[in-house]
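Each letter names a residue; structure tokens follow underneath. Both lines appear below:
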Amino acid sequence: MHDDIPPRRRRRWVRALAALGVALAAVLALQAWSLPEYALTPGDARPVGPLVSIHGLSATPHRTHILLTDVYLQSLTAWQWLILHFQAHVQFVSAADLVDPGVPASELGAQGYLEMYDSKQAAAVAALRALGWRVPAAGDGAVVTAVTSSSPAQRARLAVGDRIVAVGGRAVRSGCALVRAVHDVAPGTRLRVEVAPVRISGTGQLRWRASRTLRLVTAAAPAGLLAPTCAGVTGAARSWLGLAVEDGVAYRLPGTIAVDTRSIGGPSAGLAMCLAIIDALSRQPITGRAVVAATGTIAPGGQVGDVGGVAEKTIAVERAGASVFLVPQVEVATARAAASPGLRVVGVTTLAQALAALHQLGGAKPQPRQAPTAS
């Protein structure tokens, strides 16, 4: 075979191929390099109504459009970090801003699904109370929200979502009850802890199994640990378990209310879910003809709290055709800065304010289809 390629051109090709090889190697290295960084990008905005199912109560789905919106939270490699810096509507967040000190970022998924479970429960309670129902509540243990690395809790294999119901044979009905049970115990004490372990499915559904007893050995409290703010507890704790908890609460509802939020985590859809439940239980649509999106946490008492990624959520709801966006009052400026003139941003701090705003836009005042009764 004759080689007619001039030597000079052959050398240029060799150098080009070598440079390409170096570039590919660099890209592969950047793709394999995981960073303690996350990116928030606009997610979806979808109607909540079709996700709501109600049994045991008179309900009618209306042809209204109440949208919940979310953001995508993505862990980053160095290559993804570099590429995303050339894209619009991206917010970068450090892992240290998403979890408490000593808590591994691997718990983020379970924390998000637990927050969504709590949010759905609060949305149903707040909706029923806004319509006139009395919804009794009772303490239901101390629910684990975070487990510190290399802690007694981690060694005992406690996990986010597990519900602690007793310590040393004494019932635990709240987070502070757990604090009181451990606060004055000497380090190195072996405790019998009764736990209802949680199972979190791949799509974020939580199910609690029958309780079992764990053996847990307490450790000395780390230096600088903040003193708990629980009634009946004074001074620094002697022992440390290495977990954070919230109050477990069992509500007695007059019917069954469920929202299909598979693969969605976090608490920020609370307000949207609450409005959709009220709409389904009301005689007339509460939004009028407007396409309304909402973001914000919801408490059982109707308080609306702030959320993250509001700028990115504003982009998502505009893409979905919303004309009104209800947001927590403290985040109005952020939403308006990202919104186009066609999107009306309304700030609220309570569910009552959100309902009043919808009424001013032409929606009906909430009137339950059936007379509320005590549960």
